[in-house]
Amino acid sequence: MNRILFTLTLILTSILHTDTPVHAYPKTQGTCSNDLFDAAAAYAGWPVDEIPKVGRIAYRESRCQPGARNSCCHGLMQVHRAWLRRFGLTQAEARDGFTNLWLAHEVWLVSGWTAWSR
Length: 118
What we know:
The chain has 118 residues and is mainly alpha-helical. It is built from six helices and two strands, in the order H-H-H-E-E-H-H-H. It has helices at 2-16, 35-43, 51-62, 81-87, 91-94, 97-111; strands at residues 73-74, 79-80. The chain has a two-stranded antiparallel ribbon with strand order 1-2. The longest helix is centred in the first third of the chain and has 15 residues, at 2-16.
């Protein structure tokens, strides 16, 4: 089991810790969800039954671009800069795909889906 976890970690690190858009990998229109994205989201702590929604939100917020940013929000899930300060992360760290999924999960634990409601 540790060997599988180690291998998964290497794969996720090599792919998600780059500026390669998640959408470069096969996916369904309207979601970032695919095997790689789903595995990364699960590894970041997201409950399996919430991962489809995470994929749809990441698509809506950033079109699956880990490096996405605007005047206040960063990364796949467009996490607001106030949350970066709260967790001691830099803007560059928030634009790392896996880190952003982890951070978004932490935000979700505190505020639920309201952080992404429009």
